[in-house]
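re: the backbone from monday

yeah here it is again, tokenized this time
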């Protein structure tokens, strides 16, 4: 049954109501199906790291279980030993936990079901429902036909049962090399559904499996493993993405080999998450990692959950984004600006405000006493009444942003320029009196006088000037490294472009700055993974590469919201 998206689609943006999948679950529960039980599952293949698309599936699977008081299994779909690795298993578990979900004691592996699946395959052979095909995969593909042209039956299709059974057993005993033969279901070579044209059930793989070692030489295909695994676990709702719609009849057919009328898991499909300027295919992500085009799976430019985490994305921001894009029956390309909007909102509420100058130039206050230090109280987060204040030293020599000064400014420049006044945030009003340049004409120092009456608590505290600049006191400033990121890909939808996707990479997606000046309070307290707002600049997250005496920050996202612009377009 296909659900028209318009009827049941709920955009999470509105915050209330159920999405169409949850609506279907609710109806099943109310109808008393499966004895009122809800059991979903998240079934990753451990052949790569989880990305934000998987997060959409995880939030659906675990989230729906949470919402209706059901349970969600974690099942590793470990049916292909050639591509899978425990590194991925560990990373997948870490990332699901990070998102805030837990499978408790419901951790399963498709490989746990190999004996049962194998037994089912033998039974189907004995019942004349499966046969061993000795053709190459190319020959089999060539005989598939097209949706309008029926397929051609394999010359091995009517092999006697005993021969099939003998060959299948010998396939599994390791008598034949990889690719020599396959076990196929005998269904219908003329079916409208291409998946019914004698789908492959088992293939030979000699690579040892990370869990079952050398026990098996035949491994079930996805279609022969997935539905039955759901069935073995008592899964009631098998929620997956739209590309599985045409697989559903086969899913149900294989499950019906096991099930009675009282229980059959129900497959429901929703649209994938696709992001602009991003590739999501695990094969391509693996290639980026293996070829050193990014610095590992957790490179902050990657759409992987570990990459997003390192970049500074929070579980709350990812859930907010997934809620906004919603679950529908239509494929869509989601704008990365909306994801950025979600993280900006979350960090705005929670990130501690600090002062940092990324492109510093020295400012000298010529009338401020040499050697004197005052302590200014800075708001740690005006959005959070519990955040309080922290102390920041002020002195005669300060760092300000180079971009905050112009010698010959245009009309609307309200930052610092000769003879103009600005306020230094949380401190004094200053007036620029001149600059010092090097031989090439580059500005080395800016000079200003300080209105000593203008700081908070003094008579001139309320005097208004147009611009306010952030600053860091020079003698106590600490140098840190900042990694600035841009889109990993230079084109909006790299997944659909012709040619080599690697040619579409943005060559300027990473810029490393050394010598960024930060206030001492930040340098003393910053720990890996913490989020800060660098005043006027953006949100930054402490990178795990940080060491004693060398802090590294990842720029998570700038302050300016580009999403508003995006929707108006
Ligand atoms: P592949 O099967 O090609 O290795 P995959 O991305 O489908 O890649 P799985 O490990 O099979 O990887 O995915 C686990 C679950 O996550 C599946 O149920 C799948 O439908 C879902 N999923 C994967 N990518 C997305 C996406 N972009 N949006 C939403 N769900 C996704
Ligand atoms: Mg898959």
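seq for it, each position gets an aa:
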């Amino acid at each position: 049954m296909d659900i028209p998206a318009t009827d049941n689609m709920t955009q999470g943006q509105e915050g209330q109501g159920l999405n169409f999948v949850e609506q279907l679950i609710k109806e099943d529960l109310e109808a008393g199906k499966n004895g009122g039980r809800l059991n979903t599952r998240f079934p990753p293949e451990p052949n790569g790291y989880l990305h934000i698309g998987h997060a959409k599936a995880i939030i659906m699977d675990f989230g729906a279980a949470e919402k209706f008081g059901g349970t969600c299994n974690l099942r590793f779909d470990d049916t292909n030993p050639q591509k899978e690795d425990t590194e991925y298993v560990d990373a997948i578990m870490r990332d699901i936990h990070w998102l805030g979900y837990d499978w408790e004691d419901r951790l399963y592996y498709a490989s746990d079901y190999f004996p049962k699946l194998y037994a089912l395959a033998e039974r189907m052979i004995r019942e004349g429902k499966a046969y061993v095909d000795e053709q190459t995969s190319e020959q089999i593909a060539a005989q598939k036909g097209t949706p309008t042209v029926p397929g051609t039956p394999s010359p091995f299709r009517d092999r006697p049962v005993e021969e099939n059974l003998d060959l299948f057993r010998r396939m599994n005993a390791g008598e034949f090399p990889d690719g020599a033969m396959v076990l196929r279901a005998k269904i219908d070579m003329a079916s409208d559904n291409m998946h019914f044209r004698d789908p492959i059930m088992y293939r030979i793989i000699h690579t040892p499996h990370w869990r079952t070692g050398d026990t098996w030489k035949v491994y079930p295909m996805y279609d022969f493993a997935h539905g039955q695994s759901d069935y073995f676990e008592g899964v009631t709702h098998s929620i997956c993405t739209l590309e599985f719609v045409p697989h559903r009849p086969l899913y149900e057919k294989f499950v019906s080999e096991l099930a009675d009328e009282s229980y059959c898991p129900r497959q429901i499909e929703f649209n994938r998450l696709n992001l602009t300027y991003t590739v999501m295919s695990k094969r391509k992500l693996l290639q980026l990692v293996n070829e050193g085009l990014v610095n590992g799976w957790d490179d902050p430019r990657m759409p992987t959950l570990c990459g997003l985490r390192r970049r500074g994305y929070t579980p709350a921001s990812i859930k907010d984004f997934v809620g906004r894009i919603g679950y529908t029956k239509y494929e869509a390309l989601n704008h990365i600006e909306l994801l950025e909007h979600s993280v900006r909102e979350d960090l705005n509420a929670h990130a501690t405000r600090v002062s940092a100058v990324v492109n510093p130039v020295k400012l000298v206050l010529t009338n401020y006493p040499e050697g004197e230090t005052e302590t200014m109280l800075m708001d740690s987060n005006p959005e959070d009444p519990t955040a309080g204040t922290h102390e920041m030293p002020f002195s005669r020599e300060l760092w300000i942003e180079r971009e905050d000064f112009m010698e010959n400014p245009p009309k609307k420049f309200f930052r610092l320029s000769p003879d103009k006044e600005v306020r230094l945030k949380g401190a004094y009003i200053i007036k620029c009196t001149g600059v010092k340049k090097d031989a090439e004409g580059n500005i080395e120092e800016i000079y200003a006088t300080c209105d000593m009456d203008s700081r908070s608590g003094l008579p001139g505290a309320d005097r208004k000037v147009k611009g306010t600049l952030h600053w860091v006191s020079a003698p106590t400033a600490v140098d840190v490294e900042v990694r600035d990121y841009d889109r990993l890909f230079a084109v909006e939808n790299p997944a659909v472009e012709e040619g080599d996707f690697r040619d579409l990479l943005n060559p300027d997606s990473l810029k490393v700055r050394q010598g960024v000046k930060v206030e001492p309070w930040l340098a003393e307290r910053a720990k890996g993974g913490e989020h800060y707002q660098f005043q006027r600049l953006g949100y930054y997250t402490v990178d795990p590469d940080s060491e004693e005496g060398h802090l590294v920050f990842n720029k998570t996202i700038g302050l300016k919201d580009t999403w508003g612009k995006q929707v108006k377009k």
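The mean pLDDT is 94. DSSP finds 15 helices and 25 strands in the chain.
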